[in-house]
Amino acid sequence: MFDSGIGGLSVLRALRAELPHERWVYFADAAHAPYGERDASAVRERALAIATELRAAHGIKALVVACNTATAAGVHALRQAHPDLPVIGLEPALKPAVALTRTGHVAVLATRATLASPKFATLLAGVARDVQVTRQPCDGLAAAIEAGDAAAVAALCRRYTVEAARHGTRPGEIDTVVLGCTHYPFASDALRDALGPGITLVDSAGPVARQTRRVLAAAGLLAPPAPDAGHVTWRSSGALEPLLNAATRWLPQAVTA
Fold it and tell me: Is 157 among the residues known to form the active site?
C-alpha cells in the first residue's frame, strides 16, 4: 500500500484489523508529498513508479492505493499497467454519508485535486437530488497533520468548517462530514472541537478494508495464519524516521509486530 505520507496509516489500521493474517508493505512517498497540491499527471506517474518498485522489490500480491488523490489520478492507469495485480483504491465515503444525513446536507473535506477529479464528479452525480453536498478544499491541512503541527491543524479545521457552511442538526445545516483524505482522521479531535456536538464524521478506511478482503478472497489470495502475520515493512522515498514516528504514535502495534 502507498500514500504520499502518513495519511494511509488510518487505512492500514483498518486493514490490519480486517485482515490479521496478512503481511504489509507501507510506502510513504514523502519526497513528493503532498499529492493534493500536485498536478494529476505527476501523481499518476508516481503511482505507476511506486507500483513497479513494490512489485520488483517485495513481490506484492495486491496493492491498496491508500490516498484519495492518488486513486482519482492513477487507479485506472495502475490497473491498465498491471492487469494481473488486484488494485484497490479509495474514494470519499459520500454514499455512506448520504445514507446517514438527517438534515439533507453533507460536506466533503478533501484536497483540491480530489474534488476537481472526474472520479469525484462521477461519485457526486450518483447522489440523491434531495441531498445537498458542499465541497470544501482544505489546502494545507494534510501537510499540517504530516508535520504534527497541532496548532496549525486546529486553526485550519476551524477555518474550513466555517467556510463549508453552517453545521448543526436543523434542516439544511451540515450534520455529516466526509473526511475525504486519509490524513484527516488524524485531525478528528480538532474537527469535532470545531464542529461541536451532533455532527457525524465519516471516512473510507473501514469500507476499503472490507473491499480488500473481498478482492483477496475472490482471487484465492487470503493469507493463512503465520508467525509473521501482521508484520509491516516500512518504506519511504524520503526520510524514514518521520513515518516511523507517526506510526509509533498512531499505530504502535504495527511498529512492533
Answer: no
Compute the distance between CA of residue 180 and CA of residue 25 in angstroms, rounded to an integer: 23
Cα gap 141→156, rounded to integer Å: 6
Instruction: Give the other-Cβ count within 10 Å of 113's Cβ.
Output: 23
Pairing relation of β-strands 132-137 and 176-179? unpaired
**pTM for this one?**
0.91
Model pLDDT for residues 119-164, shown as the tens digit of each residue? 999 999 988 789 999 999 999 999 999 899 999 999 999 999 999 9
Q: Which of 30, 33, 65, 67 is catalytic?
A: 67
Is 67 considered catalytic here? yes
CA dist., res. 13 & res. 26, Å (int): 12
Question: What cell was used for 244?
Answer: 516511523
Residue found under cell 434531495: 130
Distances (CA, A) of 254 to 12, 166, 247: 9, 39, 7
